[in-house]
Specification:
Largest sheet: 4 strands, mixed
Helix content: 10-25%
Strand content: 25-35%
Order of helices and strands: EHEEEEHEEE
Strand order of the largest sheet: 1-4-3-2
Distance between the termini: 33 Å
Number of strands: 8
Oligomer: single chain
Number of helices: 2
Shape: globular
Length: about 130
């Protein structure tokens, strides 16, 4: 019998509380500060569980450059009719657009970096 497990994506950054607040607002979730001062959790409705960890030597990923390629990114699913509003929310919270080659027409995936430089996408479900 398999042991029950769960997984959590951990993002490193210099200021975990600030990055946790960004994702909590973006994902309509809550920030949980525990006993470990360098780790902050973001927990919300089904499927939202991130840990943000302080890395004193943090340097942001350099995606899409192949020499320092990204290790992971968040894919945040949004209903097609809500993607423009989700984009306004993300940018208003401090996200920076990374993929600006095709800004015209309907786009199913939009790429950003969070305030600490981690890439993430807003995407419509397949």
């Amino acid at each position: 019998m398999a042991v029950p497990k769960t997984s959590v994506l951990v993002l490193d950054c210099a200021e975990p509380r600030e990055l946790a607040e960004f994702y909590a607002v973006l994902l309509n979730a809550e920030v949980h500060v525990g006993r470990e001062p360098d780790i902050v959790e973001v927990v919300g409705h089904t499927g939202v569980h991130l840990e943000i960890r302080r890395d004193h030597g943090y340097a942001p990923p350099s995606w899409p450059r192949p020499d320092d390629s990204q290790q992971a990114h968040l894919r945040i699913l949004v209903a097609r009719e809500d993607i423009d509003e989700a984009e306004r929310e993300a940018v208003g919270l401090g996200a920076r657009p990374m993929d600006t080659k095709n800004n015209g027409g309907v786009r199913d995936t939009r790429v950003y970096s969070d305030p600490a430089g981690h890439p993430f996408t807003l995407a419509t479900p397949a």
